[in-house]
Amino acid sequence: MSLIHTLRGAAIARFAAGALSALVLFVAAPQLALAQAASEPASAPPMAAMPAAAPAAPLEAVTEKQTIENPYGLEALWNQGDLVAKSTLVIMLIMSMGSWYIIFTKLWEQSRLLKSGEVAAKTFWTAGSVKDGIGSLKEGSAFRYIAESGVKASEHHEGTLVEQIDLHTWVSMSVQRAIDSVNSRLQDGLAFLATVGSTAPFVGLFGTVWGIYHALVAIGISGQASIDKVAGPVGEALIMTAIGLAVAVPAVMGYNWLVRRNKTAMERVRAFGNDVHNVLLAGKK
Question: What digits encode the pLDDT tens for the residues 223-238?
Fold first, then answer.
């Protein structure tokens, strides 16, 4: 019996010692692992630092670069266009320059004529005679030219081949010729404006057709209708159309405006000529 109690006590003592050892290892294991990791050298190389990203270009610089390198603008059209395209552009440029030149010069001439009419209404008819009235008008004025023509016709009627024509008819013819000459001068250049206004759209349309033809040729050669093959010729065609309209519209509007102003100016000229004719027939020179 005593032997059994002795064996039982020894077993209990061994179990308690094993449990105590396991508890000590469980508690000390994390500290041992950390100490071992700190004592070992680092095996993996450090991660290389990523290069810093390049700063983004300003929006204004990007926009300017795109504008300069635009392959479908006027500069590209001139540099890449063939002889037909360049000739079309030159023709429309000449039309536009001629139209604006005529518009400005005719406006200046009409303004001078209307101003001369105002001066004639104030000074000519308040003079004592027709010759004195002519002297009050500016040299080169249309109204002075009409009055001088009438006076010359009335003074050089007798003793010439035209004396078979009565004085009334001869003075009327001379004044009317002077009025027609002024009217003809005012009409100068209007035919060019009418021609540009009626033909410039068709010149631009010709450039459009030529650009579309080049687009079809590019598609046929490449075998594919990609945007890079079609954008250039189609852009050229659209530019030609826009230029043709930009040339035609001012010419048409300028023509109609000048014709209306000519009508107003010629009404004053004809009224002045008729009055001079009546004064000369009355014998007041």
Answer: 766 676 666 667 777 8
